[in-house]
Design goal:
Two copies of one chain form a homodimer. The first copy, chain A, is α/β, with parallel strands linked by helices. Chain A has helices at about 10-15, 45-60, 70-85, 100-115, 130-135, 155-165, 190-205, 225-230, 255-265, 275-285, 290-315, 340-350, 380-395, and strands at about 30-35, 95-100, 120-125, 140-145, 150, 175, 205-210, 235-240, 250-255, 320, 330, 350, 355, 370. Chain A has two domains: about 25-45 and about 290-395, Aspartate Aminotransferase, domain 1, CATH 3.90.1150; about 45-285, 3-Layer(aba) Sandwich (Aspartate Aminotransferase, domain 2), CATH 3.40.640.10. In chain A, about 40% of the residues lie in helices and about 15% in strands. Chain A has an eight-stranded mixed β-sheet with strand order 2-9-8-7-6-3-4-5, sandwiched between helices. Chain A has a four-stranded antiparallel β-sheet with strand order 10-11-14-13, with helices on one face. The first copy, chain A, is globular. Chain A starts with 8 loop residues before the first helix and ends with a helix.
């Protein structure tokens, strides 16, 4: 039997890409983990979740364990709706879809909008999982660079106008993480946000706004693109992964009813009643505003510690953006091949993610690394950056 | 903005099908629910799950709440592997993929094998969710009828030979529920199973074996197609929905390493660590064999009660297959339009699923209904069938 012969042409093409999760480094157990985009262990509400499950099952018995039935499924959606409302994005029930995390949301959006002829624009660098997802659908991915103020919308405008002049296919959507960007930690300015929305209207494309980190500002949280969008062009993706726990797999899409209906059409893992009802119970018992405040305080502190250690231990020519929220610091190490650096670093007991995985053209990422200050404690962050500094210095020699 | 203009051609075509879940009837709260393919409430291990979560989070803290990290994720896979082994389907780790229930497994399989030019064969009638899934990918679905011995493989052979003679596209796969079929409750004979595998080899197609009910035999459980397959042509889909709880969304695919790799490539809801680790903990504490025995005893008893009530309350000309396992009785009501019957029935306080949803050509299902004996208690089953008998008799007049 020729197994490959059963795959349609487009699937065969997708299987030629780099394998999913190729970027996950092999890290020894004792190493200091600066690669993971994980919340800090003590900020994950394990015991509260234990209590939520006990309460849920005592009150509802088998209900949340069937396909449908638990009233808390609706309550979770209601919570999301009211959260969107608080943040200036009022939504009707028909404009929301709960998903298994932001990744499923992005995949479903790709599924209804992309085929091999579709064109997508992404930021450069961008979230590697999203890149993997889009590459499963189309080879026609365009990139627009990021600077300290987020996506360079002037360059986006040039690209759009150039394609228009040449009669090339217009992009279906722009994928952006405007706030506390992964991997760069940058935040798009208000002027650029307005520019993005203006361009979307002018060149008739959609905007996929990934807001996974949007409520994790150290001081305040900028207004989302969705909240500034009067035309219905923004597909907003939210997530509880970074503010509650990724292992619960709760995310959502907020967009027009027409688009939500199409997403629902293709969402064939059905609902996740147990996870959704558990999350609803947890949220009932959570003062979310004060939770966000303590997360923000804790992550700001950890970020500060990392930035000071970077100043102290990295060579003069290293540089980084100073984040105002989120989980990450994006560091440029001129003259270093960061992929090679990784094996030295893990041997020395510290991990990071090489920049290459965040670029469509991976060579562009050779001198960059993504560091997460989210997971490790302050002491380990300092130790880890010290170790990193040592291996960088020996690689420079 | 013209929202539809953003959908690619194939997506537009899929959106022309009947909406997903259209078959879910609106049932008043007090009605006796004979439509749901739900396990009986007292057979869902709610309290055991509560304890499993408590144990898991006390032992592992935040581990099962990150993307990866809980050792129990591997243990769940190990449990599935050993279960496949016990049932004569030894699998390597690389030949298994855990999914969010059987539906996601079927959707992923459709995703890697089907495009608009692909041909699929399904049983007639078949599982409505699977039909919905396949219709999202291709309009080229062929049907082969079922009788009391399962899929009529002679008719499958004729169809295959005819297509070959005419030079038509061969099917990519046959979708079958050989054991305790949904909706008919029938089981394919060993001879027909062997015939299916022979045909798959001769006409070079794959077999998607949906075994969601396969361990719910009243007496014994027939050997799976996968266990008889020496050529690697069977993609086996298993599920814990019917034997533990659907709300946990745990299923799996067992097939060749090449196919598993491709499925993994497109599985973009990521893992569900909390649900998977919870299930692993529950299974550690469960004597699964004795659990299956009590399920089998309970469902056999409920089925018997339903069959006796059908004899007593339905008109002479009604007929049904006698199931040897599973959740369903498939009833033919000659001269009745069962879709119209449903509103009378729910008014009278009993629900069922009209046969039409299980057929590609829905008119073929007009005289059939699917009844579930799984969910309601014995007393309600009798009352429900009595009510059903009454509305059938008044519809005959």
């Amino acid at each position: 039997m020729n197994m490959e012969s059963f795959f349609p042409k487009d699937i065969k093409a997708a299987l030629q890409n780099n394998p999913p999760g190729e970027w996950i480094p092999s890290v020894p157990a004792h190493a200091i983990r600066l690669h993971s985009g994980y919340p800090a262990p003590h900020l994950v509400p394990s015991m509260e979740l234990k209590e939520a499950v006990a309460q849920l099952l005592e009150e509802e018995n088998d209900l949340p364990l069937h396909y449908i039935g638990s009233p808390r499924i609706d309550k979770l959606k209601e919570w999301v709706r009211s959260r969107q409302d608080v943040r200036g994005m009022p939504a009707k029930d028909e404009e929301l879809l709960i998903t298994a995390g932001a990744c499923q949301a992005i995949d479903l959006i790709a599924r209804i909008f992309l085929d091999k002829d579709a064109v997508v624009v992404v930021e450069s660098p961008t979230y590697m999982e999203a890149l993997e997802i889009f590459q499963n659908y189309t080879g026609r991915i365009l990139t627009v660079p990021i600077d300290k103020d987020g996506l360079q919308t002037e360059k986006l405008a040039e690209l759009l106008e150039e394609r228009k002049q040449k009669g090339l296919t217009k992009p279906t959507f722009l994928y952006t993480i405007p706030t506390f960007h992964n991997p760069t930690g940058t935040t798009m300015t208000v002027e650029r946000r307005m520019h993005v929305l203006k361009l979307a209207e002018e060149y008739d494309f959609l905007v996929l706004e990934d807001d996974a980190y949007g409520e994790l500002g150290f001081n305040d949280n900028p207004k989302t693109l969705k909240s500034m969008d009067s035309k219905g062009r923004v597909l907003y993706v939210g997530s509880l992964s970074k503010v509650i726990a990724p292992g619960m797999r709760i995310g959502w899409v907020h967009t027009t009813e027409t688009f939500i209906q199409a997403l629902f059409w293709f969402k064939k893992d059905l609902e996740h009643p147990f996870a959704q009802a558990t999350m609803a119970t947890l949220l009932e018992n959570t003062d979310f505003t004060s939770r966000l405040q303590s997360l923000s305080g804790a992550y700001q502190q950890k970020c500060q510690v990392m930035l000071e250690a970077l100043e102290k231990y990295l060579p003069e020519n290293a540089s980084w953006f100073v984040p105002e929220g989120g989980y990450f610091v994006w560091v440029k190490l001129p003259g270093i091949d960061t992929e090679k650096l990784l094996s030295n670093a893990t041997e020395a007991g510290v991990s990071f993610l090489p920049g290459k995985y965040f670029f469509l053209d991976q060579t562009e990422g050779a001198e960059y690394i993504r560091l997460s200050f989210s997971y490790e404690g302050e002491e380990n962050i300092v130790k880890g950056i010290e170790k990193l500094g040592n291996v960088v210095h020996s690689n420079l020699k």
